[in-house]
Design a protein that fits this description.
Length: about 260
């Protein structure tokens, strides 16, 4: 596991954008697993900027988004479809046919997640999976207690997650109770995983997930078992990692602390 703690959100986002850019430059037909939420907004801004500068070409890139609220049609203003269009897809040259997001408006959820799973498998596996982490340790919408063997599924959202989303939906009663999500098994099958964390509300859960024994109660903790995990946090989220005595080595510069965890 490689952990990088950056000084602030902007630095974290720039470093994350560099990781994704490197992936696309080295393998132009990369299959990228993408996350939504507040954390990767700066990453997407960085990628758009690199595209506009002519540094990056996405014409052969394939994307799979992690999740979507169930019973939220793609055109809904709070859908992750809309989020991705506005933050990334409208601004770069990923062919429409290469973009995959679970259809939250599908009548038959089981048919939809099975189809999504098959689509991922058609490409073999995800090359680089970008993840955020929920304050309860969820990754994708795999909430605490979710079995690790799910590839793609329909899951129940926890009250914590729904409460957190309530302001965006204008009240908890409007937040969907379920979501379609890529499961832990598919995440763990990705060649590389990039976990991003920002803000003090993530400090406790990030250190619990990375420094304690893996447990299904903290879904992100499974990532410790991934052979190629990079974590990029800002200082607020990474604070408790930096202080732990289990660090094998770390070096401190003005605005960066980078180290390997045992
Ligand atoms: C979103 C997703 C979620 C978020 C997590 C953190 O596609 O899969 O797991 O990454 O809820 O959300 P933010 O970044 O808003 O703190």
């Amino acid at each position: 596991m490689r952990v990088i703690v950056k000084d602030n959100y902007q630095e974290m986002s720039q470093e994350a954008a560099r990781v994704v850019a490197r992936q696309v430059l080295l393998k132009p037909d990369s299959v990228l697993g993408l996350a939504t939420g507040k954390t990767p907004i700066g990453l997407y801004q960085g990628l758009v900027r690199m595209y506009e500068l002519g540094v990056l070409d996405f014409s052969r890139v394939v994307t799979f988004n992690l999740d979507e609220y169930y019973r939220l049609p793609p055109e809904h203003p709070n859908s992750y479809h809309r989020y991705m269009q506005e933050r990334l897809f409208e601004h770069v040259n990923i062919p429409e046919g290469n973009i995959h997001i679970p259809n939250g408006g599908a009548e038959d959820a089981e048919a939809e997640y099975k189809h999504y799973d098959e689509e991922i498998k058609r490409y073999g596996r995800i090359d680089l999976q970008v993840l955020g982490i929920g304050p309860n340790g969820h990754i994708g919408f795999n909430e605490p207690g979710t079995p690790w063997e799910i590839t793609v599924g329909l899951v129940q959202l926890s009250e914590t997650t729904r409460n957190r989303e309530a302001p965006r939906f204008g009240g908890i009663e409007n937040v969907p109770g379920r979501a379609l999500t890529i499961g832990i098994k598919t995440i763990m099958h990705a060649r590389k995983v990039l976990l991003l964390a920002s803000g003090s509300e993530k400090a406790d859960i990030l250190s619990e997930a990375l420094l304690n024994a893996p447990t299904p109660n903290i879904p992100a903790s499974v990532l410790q078992l991934h052979p190629c995990l990079s974590v990029i946090a800002d200082r607020a989220a990474g604070e408790k990692l930096v202080k732990k005595p289990t660090l094998k080595s770390f070096r401190t510069q003005e605005a960066i602390q980078e180290f390997e965890l045992i």
